UniProtKB/TrEMBL annotation:
Domain spans labelled Calcineurin-like phosphoesterase: 57-285
GO MF annotation list: hydrolase activity
Location in or out of the cell: Membrane
Top-level taxon of the source organism: Eukaryota
A GO-annotated cellular component: endoplasmic reticulum
TM spans (from-to): 348-372, 480-499
Family matches, as InterPro entries: Calcineurin-like_PHP (IPR004843), Metallo-depent_PP-like (IPR029052), PGAP5/Cdc1/Ted1 (IPR033308)
Name assigned to this protein: Metallo-dependent phosphatase-like protein
Main localisation: membrane
Keywords: Membrane, Transmembrane, Transmembrane helix
Membrane topology note: Multi-pass membrane protein
Organism: Mycena pura
BP term (GO), one: GPI anchor biosynthetic process
Listed Pfam families: Metallophos
Amino acid sequence: MDFARNRLVVNALRLLWTVLAVWYEHFIFLHSVRQCVWPDSKLQARKDLFLPRPTHVLVVADPQILDHRSYPGRAPLLTYVSQLLVDLNLRKNWRASLRLQPDVVVFLGDMMDGGRFAMSDSEYEQYYSRFKSIFSLDASIPSYWIPGNHDTGLGTSDQFSRAAEARYISHFGPLNDRVTIANHTVILLDAPSFAEEDGHAPAQGGPSEFVMLYANSKDQDPVVLFTHIPLSRPEGSDCGPYRERGTIRKGAGFGYQNTLGKSASDFLLQNLQPSVIFSGDDHDYCEYTHSYVSGGKTRHVREVTVKSLSMAMGIRQPGIQLLSLVPPDPMHGSLSHSDSLCLLPDQLGIYLSTYIPFLVFSLLVICFANIYKIRTSQYSASLAPSYAPLSSALRSHSDSGRHGDAWLNYPPEDDALPRPAAFKNAPRPLYSWTFVLLSRRRRISISADSMSSLASLLCGCCGGDVPKSRGTARGILYDVRDVAVFPLAIFGVLAWWMFR
């Protein structure tokens, strides 16, 4: 009965862990994106008779994949584990995002955390290949990129590579670019270089010259501006309800600048007159409406700072931005673009608030079940001697022939053969492997005695006296193994599937 009860506990925990692993490692990501819809409804309110299908643009900010420079104070092993977990999270977020079937993808910079640092060409190629393996994309889907301060650098430092911009161009594309999507002019701005030009003479072929070329082109299509660094705004400006904490504040430091300067921001607003602006760099969501004067009129434009896609950027819920575009209707002046936030699972919360508490709960249940089983067995054994006289009497009656009932004929306990002396004190193996090496059979065994101290530590959390018997230690370790094997297998299979 005790053994059956223990098997029931193990099977129940195994089932719960399996359900948790399947849900939190796979289906919760699919569930999150199913809650997200392209913001077409606002555009479909137009009265056009022949309204085309909206073009869906997936906007991704700051994936910033880690390398060995990302956490200089961490031990190499911990850095490697962090990199592995973050890469896995990025893969799950990205694959879930692609289920939305975007028509175009735009990355808002900071693709690689250490892309700006001095390194060999081979190291950069490996770094870039890792990024591309995470963010695999069908060749039929156009993708566009803008540089971030972690890609090409901002300011000067001996640690930054002089070839950072050239490497970016050869791998991602031009620093500044202009494309047309659904009759909208999309401006892809090199914000780090533009921030360095602020207050200095514009560089030939730089972002200021690029902006002026557009301003002189007399293009009449609505402008969608993509910039890595957010535009200037008053200190303490509210970021809206989707912000996790704080606001975007002015500031600068080693290789970064929180916002563009006031004069640089006004230069962009007045020369581009964008219909909407998307920025990155801050990692958290922020929505702010800029006001500026152009042609004697006060104009307003909304800027959305997009959440990072990564769990390692100081936010609990990563996210993406969904942008829908339709060709503008000059006759009616109706809305031609709309966007919405899509939130992804809180991976850190899953680890801290689900896996760890349930792990502690599982260990407590296993410890309690094994202690209960041992103490119940000991209690039953303590009662056994009280029945010995009756057993002897029954046996003697049977031997004397006064009772012929067969069920009273107990075999004497002394009839059992003793255990060989060579094995009397030998520890029973917990795990054993047999293999052939150099034409001889070899065997490796791990005794339960060598693991008893670990079991004692696991049981210590239950309080009270910890049983010292070898059976308790073996039972706990076997139960932990039996419970863990299925969820660990699921973790391994899903990780392999994500990394393949």
